[in-house]
Amino acid sequence: MAAMQMDPELARRLFFEGATVVILNMPKGTEFGIDYNSWEVGPKFRGVKMIPPGIHFLHYSSVDKANPREVGPRMGFFLNLQQRGLKVLRWDAAREEIDLSPAPEAEVEAMRANLQELDQFLGPYPYATLKKWISLTNFISEATVERLQPESRQICAFSEVLPVLSMKHTKDRVGQNLPRCGTECKSYQEGLARLPEMKPRAGTEIRFSELPTQMFPAGATPAEITRHSMDLSYALETVLSKQFPCSPQDVLGELQFAFVCFLLGNVYEAFEHWKRLLNLLCRSEEAMMKHHTLYVNLISILYHQLGEIPADFFVDIVSQDNFLTSTLQVFFSSARKSPARSCKDEARIPSFTSNQVPSVPERLFPISQAPCGFPVSLVMVLTQLNSTRALGRDLPQQQSTSFQKRSC
């Protein structure tokens, strides 16, 4: 980990006031990161110091001892660190992962007493990216992490899967309409159809909220079905009442949690959940009127998230599904119909100076088209989107490697 230039007095204060994560026995060459930064571990690495209190995402990828260039799938976990807190973890060589079991209290206290001697083996937290990390996670609470993280607490780029049936007997294959072993496939589609039904190993999958597949109430008339299919407010209200009865704002924490898991954890399933949840939020016009504060915060979240979507990954979206553009167009159209609110609400929308916004021709989105009630932020969101799309057009049309599914 590269040294960070910092005033000695400030560094001393942060060392004693910040949290520390000690990781013992992590092999040299392992890719390790915290929040928005990652490094290749050296022989002296023992952890990270001067970590600001709050929610953090630690992630890592093991390397092949025989071939250090071969890197395993990314794994990670969330920690809620307290001021002056000390977390002691160790590397499990057999499983090639960090053991999240709590260390004995006596060991933790002994480590705390010798923390200054351990200082030379600890890398400083990179404060240069702290503001960006906070902007991506400001709605993720400890309760959000506890509710969504896998029971194992380890978040893997591709969850370990097991067959639903053992397939030891012919009757098991017949039960899934699979041909006998050894039968030659006649097509690629047939080969895919022959794959056995799989399920994630218990305790390894992220526990995202269940989103409805039916967007209208039971017994709805054809006219009501059409209305609820165009405006998803009924489905959104169902999710909010069942999953977030006390605080609808917590749905934003789940949106951010999913985004971090796919952006930093490379979890493709998290990306799919982020898309579905964002689609539900953006296509709920009536809910936008009812939950005005929630949507003001959503606009701020979208601004920061759109700036972090990798340009090469966005090429895949543009060339295949164009999900983001169509979803946000519906959102902007609905927002224009939202009545202007008080200056107090307006002040909660982040303001941006001209040098913070990528320049795009005004013909792409004239300022005069900004929806009433959300003028500045919606311009910023679409400007960010146009900028990302422009980056994507300059890239070669190749498959993204940022979010590949890989086995643990």
UniProtKB/TrEMBL annotation:
> This protein is called what?
Protein AAR2 homolog
Q: What is the protein's species of origin?
A: Capra hircus (Goat)
What sections of the sequence does the record tag as coiled-coil? Answer: none
Keyword tags:
mRNA processing, mRNA splicing, Spliceosome
Q: Which GO terms describe its biological process?
A: spliceosomal tri-snRNP complex assembly
GO CC annotation: spliceosomal complex
**Domain AAR2 C-terminal: residue ranges:** 208-338
Q: Which family does it belong to?
A: Belongs to the AAR2 family.
- Assembly behavior: Interacts with PRPF8 (via RNase H homology domain). Component of a U5 snRNP complex that contains PRPF8.
Cross-referenced Pfam families, in alphabetical order? Answer: AAR2 (PF05282), AAR2_1st (PF20981)
- What is this protein for, i.e. what is its function? Component of the U5 snRNP complex that is required for spliceosome assembly and for pre-mRNA splicing.
Domain AAR2 N-terminal stretches: 17-150
